[in-house]
Design a protein that fits this description.
The chain has a single domain, classed as Rossmann fold (3-Layer(aba) Sandwich), CATH 3.40.50. The chain is of the alpha/beta class. Helix content is about 30%, strand content about 25%. Strands 3-2-1-4-5-7-6 form a seven-stranded mixed β-sheet. The relative contact order is 0.14. The chain binds S-adenosylmethionine (SAM). The site of S-adenosylmethionine (SAM) has 22 residues, from α1, α2 and α5.
């Protein structure tokens, strides 16, 4: 029997090898960074001394924070994205680069990081992979370290493929992710359901904190 989750993960990765998205998305950063963004007040609660950006794409968010971050580790499943980030940030000495397997944080040591964040990416991931990333996030954060994760809150079409869903949101639930995070040792500090104009409550964002051991 094949690994259906891994098959889905590979199919998803294919979409992000060289998508027009990357160029377009450089032009719409306000959702995350403008005053009034739902994300920004939570982002400001992260300590950027040693931060991981998961599923960094081609670095549009990293660029915003390079001057204020101590060290930033950029992680993505697509090797080409990491290669392009290397070029984009070649003048910077505070950036590390990791190509991962789609559900892990290899080369990131236990308890070594002050923050993890992920924008506009986990919304597409398989639910089992989001759960693996929650486990990995708990592993790499120091006690008191925080994670800001933008997730899918689409509970339509269980068992389907994400192309069938509004804005390619994979099956997910903010409530389920908050519950799993709690059980893995990540307490919720803040959470918010995020509306799209034509699709209310489609996304969620959660600010988590690693509990002390
Ligand atoms: C929509 S893009 C968002 C990129 C970036 N976060 C941004 O906002 O510009 C989705 C990103 O997730 C990456 N990706 C897809 N599946 C992944 C997985 N299972 N684990 C890690 N990264 C993945 C893609 O390579 C791509 O960079």
């Amino acid at each position: 029997m094949g690994d259906r989750n891994a098959e889905m993960r590979s199919a998803i990765a294919q979409d992000w090898l060289d998508a027009p998205y990357y160029k377009d998305a450089e032009g719409w950063l306000d959702t995350f960074w403008a005053p009034g963004s739902a994300f920004l007040p939570m982002f400001r609660q992260l300590d950027l001394t040693r931060v991981i950006e998961l599923a960094c794409g081609r670095g549009r968010h990293a660029e915003r924070i390079l001057d204020e971050a101590g060290e930033i580790t950029l992680v993505d499943l697509v090797a080409r994205n990491i290669e392009l980030c290397r070029e984009r940030f070649s003048a910077r000495e505070n950036v590390r680069y990791v190509v991962n397997s789609g559900n892990d944080l290899p080369g990131c040591e236990d308890g070594g990081y002050s923050a993890v964040f992920c924008y506009d990416a986990m919304v597409h991931f398989e639910l089992l992979d989001v759960i693996s990333y929650l486990r990995e996030t708990r592993r790499v954060l120091r006690p008191g370290g925080r994670a800001l994760l933008h997730v899918s809150n689409n509970m339509q079409n269980p068992g389907g493929f994400y192309h069938q869903n509004t804005h390619w949101r994979n099956f997910g639930s903010l409530a389920v992710f908050l519950h799993v995070a709690d059980r893995l040792g990540l307490a919720c500090l803040e959470q918010q359901v995020v509306d799209w104009p034509e699709a209310p409550k489609l996304d969620g964002v959660m600010l988590l904190e690693r509990r002390p051991d």
